[in-house]
Write a sequence for this structure.
């Protein structure tokens, strides 16, 4: 498993922005599909965004598309999630994850069972 550590969560108001970071150990982000999921209170885990291992494609859920951006810095081995125009319903614990397989292109990147390494999560609370 690959250690992943998220940071950057916090308490913000609707319309604000936050950038989450996910620091990975070793040179791994460039060989794994990476993703962000979230889980709100009393809700199931939900796909947010993913990046294919080669960085050539990104994927977003409909609820965050055009507001959130997934990116990574290979030199820093860090995955990011830029969240703009935050809404109350974005409140959740956000988790980063990497695929179980290396160099693996999938038909779907939103299935959480495809991801074998997870961080501990970072809390995002959007409140007025």
């Amino acid at each position: 498993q690959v250690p992943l550590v998220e940071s950057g969560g916090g308490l913000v108001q609707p319309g604000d922005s936050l950038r989450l970071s996910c620091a990975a150990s070793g040179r791994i982000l460039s060989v794994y599909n990476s993703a962000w999921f979230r889980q709100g209170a009393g809700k199931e885990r939900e796909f947010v965004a993913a990046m294919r291992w080669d960085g050539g494609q990104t994927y977003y859920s409909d609820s965050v598309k055009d507001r959130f951006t997934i990116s990574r810095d290979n030199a820093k081995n860090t995955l990011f999630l830029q969240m703009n125009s935050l809404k109350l319903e974005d409140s959740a614990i956000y988790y980063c994850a990497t695929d179980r397989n290396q160099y693996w292109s999938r038909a779907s990147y939103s299935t959480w069972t495809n991801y074998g390494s997870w961080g501990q999560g970072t809390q995002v609370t959007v409140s007025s």
The chain has a mean pLDDT of 94. The radius of gyration is 13 Å.
